[in-house]
Write a structure and sequence with these properties.
2 domains, elongated, binds 2-acetamido-2-deoxy-beta-D-glucopyranose, WAK_GUB, polysaccharide binding, WAK_assoc_C, non-specific serine/threonine protein kinase
Length: about 280
C-alpha cells in the first residue's frame, strides 16, 4: 500500500516535467540532420509562417528547399542573420563549369517572393548567354547590367581553372563582337534567374561572408545565399506567442496566424486570447 502510493507519487513526479515540457516546449521546432528547423520554417504544415509552407523537406537527414525553379540542398540556416545557404548540384564553381542549361537558377513563386530573396551581396554569374538575351537588350554596345557584386564578378571568375581549355574566347570577344561569356549581376537587377528565359547555358553564384576578405575566386563561397523575412507585426505576434510558451503557426485553411499552446490553439498567445476552435 505504502509502496504503491510512493511509486505512484514517484511516477507522478517523473511525469510532471514531461507534462510541463509538453506545454512549453516548442512543438514546431525540429531538426533535419544537424540543422535546426524553427520559425518561420517548418516541416509540418500549420507550423511556422505560411509564406514558407511546402518549402522544406527532410529526406534522409538532408534538408531540401523546393521552389518553382527546382530543389536545392540547404547547407545552413542562419537565424541571427536571417539567411539560408543553398546548393544546386548544377551550379558552376571554380573547378567546374556546368553548361547545357542544367542548373536550377533561382525563381520563387510570386506569392513567396516577399519572404525570400537572394541577399544583396550574392552575385549571380550568368554563363554563355546568347546575344539575343534580354540581359543585353536595351544596352547596345555596352553591358550595363553586368557588374561586380561585393567585389565578386566575372573578370575575377575567368581566372578559375574551370575556364582554362574551354572554347570560350574570353579575350577575343570584346564588346564589339558579342556579349561577354559571363555576366555577373545582383539578383535585384533581374528579379529571377531563369536560364531558359535568359538564354544562358549555365550559371554560378557566390556570396561573401563579410567581413571576411578573400583574395580570389578560388576562395569565394559558391552557393546561393537567400535572405528570409517576415512581416514586422507577424514577428512581434510570434515573439509574444513564444514568450508564453507557444509555438507560432498558422491556420491551414485561412493561413491566419495562430499560437499553438499544447492542448489548444490561441488566436493571440498562450496567456490570453480566444481559442481558435
Ligand atoms: C552539419 O553536417 C555537415 C555534414 O553533414 C557538415 O559539413 C557541417 O559542417 C555541419 N554543420 C554544423 C553546424 O555542425
Ligand atoms: C492547432 O492548429 C494546428 C495547425 O493549424 C493544427 O494542426 C492542430 O490540430 C490544432 N490543434 C488544436 C488542439 O486544435
Ligand atoms: C523559365 O522560363 C521558361 C521560358 O520562358 C518558362 O517556360 C518556365 O516556366 C520558366 N521557369 C520558371 C521556374 O519560372
Ligand atoms: C570588377 O572588378 C574587377 C577586379 O577588381 C575589375 O577589373 C573590373 O573592371 C570590374 N568590372 C566591373 C564590370 O565593374
Amino acid at each position: 500500500m505504502l509502496i504503491s502510493s510512493v511509486s505512484i507519487l514517484f511516477q507522478a513526479l517523473l511525469l510532471l516535467p514531461l507534462v510541463h515540457a509538453y506545454g512549453h516546449a516548442n512543438a514546431c521546432r525540429t531538426y533535419c540532420g544537424n540543422l535546426t528547423i524553427d520559425h518561420p520554417f517548418a516541416l509540418q504544415s500549420g507550423c511556422g509562417h505560411p509564406g514558407f509552407r511546402d518549402l522544406l523537406f527532410c529526406i534522409n537527414d538532408v534538408l531540401m528547399f523546393h521552389i518553382s525553379s527546382g530543389s536545392y540542398r540547404v547547407l545552413d540556416i542562419d537565424y541571427a542573420y536571417q539567411s539560408l545557404t543553398l546548393h544546386d548540384p548544377h551550379l558552376s564553381n571554380c573547378d567546374t563549369l556546368v553548361l547545357g542549361n542544367r542548373g536550377n537558377g533561382f525563381v520563387v513563386e510570386p506569392w513567396r517572393s516577399p519572404y525570400l530573396t537572394p541577399t544583396a551581396d550574392n552575385v549571380f554569374m550568368l554563363i554563355g548567354c546568347s546575344a539575343e538575351s534580354s540581359l543585353f537588350q536595351g544596352f547596345p554596345g555596352k553591358h550595363l547590367p553586368c557588374r561586380n557584386v561585393s567585389g565578386m564578378g566575372c573578370e575575377d571568375y575567368y581566372g578559375c581553372q574551370a575556364w582554362t581549355g574551354l572554347g570560350f574566347s574570353r579575350l577575343g570577344s570584346g564588346y564589339r563582337s558579342g556579349p561577354p561569356e559571363c555576366c555577373s549581376v545582383p539578383f535585384e537587377a533581374i528579379k529571377a534567374v531563369n536560364l531558359t528565359k535568359l538564354g544562358c547555358q549555365g550559371y554560378s553564384s557566390a556570396y561573401s561572408l563579410a567581413p571576411l576578405r578573400v583574395t580570389g575566386p578560388d576562395e569565394w563561397s559558391y552557393g546561393i545565399r537567400v535572405k528570409f523575412s517576415v512581416e514586422v507585426n507577424r514577428e512581434s505576434y510570434c515573439k509574444a506567442c513564444e514568450a508564453t510558451g507557444g509555438s507560432c503557426g498558422y491556420d491551414i485553411d485561412g493561413l491566419t496566424g495562430l499560437c499553438m499552446c499544447g492542448s489548444w490553439n490561441s488566436t493571440s498567445n498562450c496567456d490570453s486570447g480566444n481559442s481558435s476552435l
